[in-house]
Specification:
Blueprint lengths: L19 E4 L4 E4 L5 E6 L10 H19 L3 E8 L4 H9 L4 H18 L7 E4 H17 L3 E4 L2 E4 L15 H10 L16 E5 L15 E3 L1 H12 L4 E7 L3 H16 L5 E7 L2 E3 L2 E2 L10 H6 L4 H9 L7 E2 L2 H18 L3 E2 L3 H12 L4 H17 L4 E2 L1 H13 L4
Parallel strand pairs: 3-4, 3-10, 4-5, 10-11, 12-14
Antiparallel strand pairs: 1-2, 6-7, 7-8, 8-9, 12-13, 15-16
Bound molecules: 5'-O-(N-(L-cysteinyl)-sulfamoyl)adenosine and zinc ion.
């Protein structure tokens, strides 16, 4: 699939700091030491509805990861998937009596537009589940042939007991895992499974549903977790730096993915850091396509809201916290954008070097965007109250806000 156009990332004077980030698997901060090319896999959308603020907040977090790396003069190899075949997509297409392919294409196109407007850096490889099927089938065959997977009425399940490291990503107790499995796409109550948590790797063709050639697996379609493993291993290989997504992906998705990869390669973990963004709520409940309590990026854009203000609204919250979207959050962001734009509109101002270092420090420290915003606020307030004589300082601030936060002033 094609991704979306990249916005330019201005180079800043000096050099950024290495990223320290929270890893779910160890529940601690780790300093990543990527080589000259940092590798990141971010789980993409299931395109059955438009991009909401929760999605945008999660992609914003991983955009910051890349911006910190780029500021250390590294290249970034970024891969993202599109789950363009899965139950929720088929269910929505059926409900709305539209073709599932057309639905996926429409929502993916809108996602690209939203990401472009928000200045999110595009992945180098943007891969749909459907186009990944030829790479998924041999992996499922290998898992089955090595005894890590088994057949149940034509479907192929992964056996979590085949992985000695199972559970190490999300570190949850068995009861919680079972509950979350049922909530998040699993089928713990299906009779005949070896372990209720075992996830499906390959679903045999169902009457009236799309299916693909699965070689020795028979016709069918891929399971969710193996999709991301196949794409990540194909484009990044084992031991890449970050796998990212919202906190609802820690279990089962990232746990199962790590298990699949362990069974395939004998190595754990697939990613050096498992990074999870908090959940954005609306009216007290997690914003979700299934509940329908949504604020869409595209709807705000249509209402004339500046995408830079949307981005500032996201950045005002630490990526790991759960937070609530309200009108006030957006109003505060609009006001902040106005103050910042006024402050950089003059040719000179207070010195900017210390501010750039504060921003770098804050972001390298587990992507502390709110602290970076507060530093820019102080500079803008000083500019407003007393001005300054440093020629070009506003330009430096403007470039730093663009390069490190993805906000065009
Ligand atoms: N296609 C899979 C990943 S392979 C998927 O989870 N798609 S999704 O469309 O449901 O979600 C896309 C990303 O947005 C995931 O990282 C998910 O964790 C995140 N996300 C979904 N809802 C919210 C929310 N309310 N707040 C924050 N992030 C969210
Ligand atoms: Zn994924």
């Amino acid at each position: 699939m094609h991704a979306w156009p990249a916005s330019e990332v201005p180079a800043l004077p000096g050099k950024g700091r290495d990223l320290r980030i929270h890893d779910t698997a160890t529940d601690g901060l780790i300093t990543l030491d990527p080589g000259p090319v940092a590798r990141i896999y971010v789980c993409g959308i299931t395109p059955y509805d438009a991009t909401h603020m929760g999605h945008a907040a999660t992609y914003n977090a991983f955009d910051l990861v890349q911006r910190v790396w780029l500021d250390t003069k590294r290249q970034v190899h970024y891969v993202q998937n599109v789950t363009d075949i899965d139950d929720p997509l088929l269910e929505r297409a059926e409900r709305d009596a539209i073709d599932w392919v057309a639905l996926a294409e429409k929502e993916t196109a809108l996602f690209r537009e939203d990401m472009t407007a928000l200045r999110m850096l595009p992945p180098r490889h943007y891969i749909g589940a459907v186009e990944a099927i030829p790479g998924i089938v041999p992996l499922v065959e290998r898992l089955r042939d090595s005894g890590a997977a088994y057949e149940l009425e034509g479907d192929i399940y992964f056996s979590v007991e085949s992985d000695p490291d199972f559970g190490k990503v999300s570190r949850l107790d068995a009861a919680t895992m079972r509950l979350l499995s049922a909530e998040r796409g699993g089928d713990p109550d299906r009779p005949g499974k070896k372990n209720p948590l075992d996830p499906m790797l390959w679903m045999a063709a169902r009457e009236g549903e799309p299916s693909w050639d699965g070689g020795s697996l028979g016709r069918g379609r891929p399971g969710w977790h193996i999709e991301c493993v196949a794409i990540a291993l194909d484009h990044l290989g084992m031991g890449f730096d970050v796998q990212g997504g919202g906190s609802d992906l820690a279990f089962p998705h990232h746990e199962m993915g790590a298990s699949h990869a362990q069974a395939l390669t004998g190595e754990f973990p697939m990613a050096k850091a498992y990074v999870h963004a908090g959940m954005v709520a609306l009216h007290g409940e997690k914003m979700s396509k299934s509940k329908g309590n949504l604020v869409f990026v595209s709807a705000l854009r249509r209402d004339g809201v500046d995408p830079a203000a949307i981005r500032l609204a996201l950045l005002a919250h630490h990526y790991r916290s759960d937070w609530e979207w309200t009108d006030q959050v957006l109003q505060d962001a609009v006001a902040r954008l106005d103050r910042w734009r006024a402050a950089v509109s003059r040719p000179d101002g207070p010195p900017a070097e210390a501010l750039v270092e504060e921003m770098r420090e804050a972001l390298a420290n587990d992507l502390d965007a709110p602290t970076a915003l507060a530093a820019v606020d102080r500079w803008a307030a000083l500019q407003q109250e007393r001005g300054g004589t440093d020629e070009g300082a506003p330009g430096v601030v403007s470039r730093a806000v663009d390069a490190l936060l993805g906000v065009a002033l």
